[in-house]
Design brief:
Helix content: under 10%
Strand order of the largest sheet: 1-4-7-10-13
Number of helices: 0
Strand content: 25-35%
Distance between the termini: 25 Å
Shape: globular
Structural class: mainly beta
Largest sheet: 5 strands, parallel
Length: about 170
Amino acid sequence: AGAGIHVYDSNGTPARNDIRYNPVYDNSKTIGGRGQGIIAKCSNCVIANNLTYGNMLWGIHAFANGSGSKIYNNTSFNNVQGGIFIAPGTSNWTVTNNVAYLNGGDGNIATVGTGTTLAANLTSNPLFVKAELCDYHVDAGRPAIDGGVTLAPIVMEDFDGVGRSQGLAYDIGA
């Protein structure tokens, strides 16, 4: 198995795809060898409000030749290789308001693309309600609450369909 969600075209680079509101987990964990959560070789795409966890490789992987895409308000937790990876050959990706925590290998957020913008991402413990039961919500007073920046009109709701923002600012994560 390659990935839970794979946006790729061998004849070019897909453009303007939206990847939203997906739980993507355990890819290739028992099959062995490979398994991204979301892998995207695309330009001007939006990857938002996804939950990736327990994947063999990266939770979210921005693949070569993609440009100008946005990774907004995702939660990437406990993926073996890493949380969010912006690969060589990518350009001008924006990674904002994401929770990337307890990912292995290369870390929570890694970028070797050119012109990548990182803002308001949380890589320390977000204090999930019950991660051991795959409940990645956060309650009031937790670090992800009101810690993000406004991303309207691109991101208007959270993973559960609740409008953003509910407090002083956007919450971080899905």
